[in-house]
Amino acid sequence: MRGIVLAGGSGTRLHPITQAVSKQLLPVYDKPMIYYPLSVLMLAGIRDVLVISTPTDLPNFRRLLGNGTQYGLRLSYAEQPSPNGLAEAFLIGADFVGTDDVALILGDNIFHGQDFARRLQREVSTLDGCTLFGYPVKDPQRYGVGEVDGEGRLVSIEEKPARPKSNRAITGLYFYDNQVVEIARGLRPSPRGELEITDVNLAYLRQGRAKLLDLGRGFAWLDTGTHDSLLEAAQYVQVIEHRTGVRIACLEEVALRMGYIDPDQCLALGRKLAKSGYGEYVVTLARNAGATG
């Protein structure tokens, strides 16, 4: 499976702080926002990743992440000049996806919960059609909403319904088989001129090949699209990291735990950041893992 991080858009809800920098490059406590979705793909076992952003912002992502080899990844980049809908990612990334399955994650979504890596890897290995990830919210009318039957099968999807049939919001993480590229090519733009991800999901639902995995209680799904939600996400990360001593979405740690890099490579990455608490954390991880440098 290949992965796409969609990190485009103009971030108008965060103006003026996003007038000169991409939203996905803003800090969420101690690391850039894009670290969080990228770490999710890494935990799923995905090592080929395409970052899609605006022509203006792509050089900054390249400067931050490079070609990904330092994390044992292969990173590519592509432009989305205008925000023409989430499903446009599959048209932009068609050559990158090739004949593989693909995961799409939004660059401003944060996921955190116990046993997440195992759940992701299980879904990758058993994918048949598409897997959506649902999360209970108190205001489902603001989201795409999935309804399941008594046996847990997905039976309907509605976008921002006035009267939601469930409280399960569909999050910004999606797993698709290779047919998604063909489906995206056949979409008709919405009245706003966008290719809607809900239309992709409905196509799979009509085939009987759409699944909704409920992330459930004890899990955190955070959106960072407004000033308040950005601050709340940073506070959440701060509290968890201070209480547990474990950093969320530390790319060096994920790469080490997944076997993408070895302890000595991890140590070298930590030393480059050693004047920060983040860098000290990476150095300690590497030495505890047996780094010899």
UniProtKB/TrEMBL annotation:
Cofactor names: Mg(2+)
Gene Ontology molecular function, alphabetical: glucose-1-phosphate thymidylyltransferase activity; metal ion binding
GO biological process: hexose metabolic process; polysaccharide biosynthetic process
Name of the protein described by the UniProt record: Glucose-1-phosphate thymidylyltransferase
Location of the Nucleotidyl transferase domain: 3-237
Organism: Amycolatopsis arida
EC number: 2.7.7.24
NCBIfam families recorded: rmlA
